[in-house]
Amino acid sequence: MFDIEEKLKKLPDKPGVYIMKDKVDEIIYVGKAISLKNRVRQYFQSSRNQGLKVKNMVKHIDDFEYIIVDNEVEALILEANLIKKHRPKYNILLRDDKQYPYIKVTLNERYPRVIKTRQVLKDGAKYFGPYPSATAVNDAIDIIHDIYPIRTCKLNLENDMRKFRPCLNYHIGKCNAPCLGNVDEKEYLQMIDEVIRFLNGKKEHLIDIIEEKMIEASKNLEFEKAGIYRDQMNSLKLLQEEQKIVTSNIIDQDVIGMARGIEEVCIQIFFIRGGKIIGREHFLMEDMFNADRKEILSSFLKQFYIGSAYIPKEILIEESIEDLDTMEKWLEGKRGSKVNILIPQRGEKHKLIEMVNKNARDMLNKYGDRFLKKHRENIKALEEIQDILNLEDIPNRIEAYDISNISGVQSVGSMVVFEKGEAKKSDYRRFRIRDVDTPDDYASMEEVLRRRFVRGIEEKEILKDNSMETRGFSNFPDLIMIDGGKGQVNIVLRVLEELEIGIPVCGLVKDDFHKTRGIIYKNIEFDLPLDSRGFKMIYRIQEEAHRFAISYHKSLRTKDMFKSQLDDIKGIGEKRKIALLRHFQSIEKIKKASIEELAEVKGMNNKVAEELYNHFRNKKGQGE
Length: 624
What we know:
By secondary structure, the protein is of the alpha+beta class. 45% of the residues lie in helices and 18% in strands.
């Protein structure tokens, strides 16, 4: 046990962040203070006025550290970063750490592009969003590219134009190819202006354009094309209806409301841009110790905006928080201009808060009980796993690993992470096997685990120097699950022993039908009842590791297959490839075409058409 009094005497009367640790050196709480000396001492004085959370936490504190900073804003930033990194047990935590997508118009380029991004930079480009739905962003960008032949490539066209070789988009009419040097810049920028009008909510003009194209296609009896235009028009109208005008104020706002359950809190946030709701999102947070509303709201603001790419001019909340001025200064630094956190008491803005609070209550009624029930089921499942393996503590963080390959080709490894029984996808990692070129799952697993934990050790050293530029490997698991038996487990244990890391490792054993039937731990096999909570959780974790490995492997194979689908066919050169794609618009339509239809393409003849036709039919016959 550390000497509390001695450490308390050495605390400086300066702003900073304090880090509480338990007996196994796990970080259990992170807080900030104007005066480290005064704030940290309060935890170890009389417990008479302490809340339930603090009383429980103090029982588990075995040591503490602190980091001195120059001011309160720096303390707030460091506190938020450390909470996001370590997710301490006694901090109020967001269950879902989302990074919302934006639409970026690259006005900082000579011929601007329209792309999706999750990072807002001060680079002269124009950003629209955030949008809670990545699908909505993709649909909007697809519609823009269908209507306007603007470029998608990353070519540098800033200097005196030199001619590049145009891509397939030019040949199929989807880009007017400014890379050739013959596109009028003013006309191109006029298209971009229309795109910006569309993204600013003025969709009527674009709907009229699409309607004209639909009518024209119908007159030409091109009913399939007319149907596509009809669907695009309907999507735009739907998007227009969803973006409801809720305020006469045209500045960007985030409106945040909160509702409390028994052991959980629902935070609802509405994104208002130019007076219109462009999206909303809810977050469920655990509240096991009945924390103060102001503490919950403050914790949410820090954790949400530390990862947010865009900061609005106004943030509306229902009640004041302790560090409001510091929060405003921090957000102003991120935004680069004034940010106001307001607590409206009347008028239009107060009605917005009431609307968001009502939505938070509805969301809590809808999902709160389900969340609480699921959380309790997860804890019971983890307790079953703890009992089976005779672990000292519940395995709060579990990492599972799997290897995927086809005859040793393009072997990949997956690492999935579950915390408190729920998948934490932000911590998933994929590994492309570098050093093994044969179908050797043992060697592949050894490489994956060694790379993962060597990187983790390096990141822990970086964190000691107060640097936050890490990739999430520093957080070690309480339990490792391996897709395999004794051999795989022993490989992993050997790696951990060499690195002087003590983490329990179990193998997941499968039956003759490749289904999980039990666990191997310390060379003993445990059969679990198929209807037990522990078995169901183990099965879910293993299936997720397998799915993640397979999806990565498939994506690598698909890239290679796409490159070669037309490349290896006798008689199909670059010109014929372009002509085929321009005529049929897609590889799938080429595959389905008859010899006669293929021969109609410019530059094709019957012999090459027959070769192409047979190529794809033979591929199908081989099971591809």
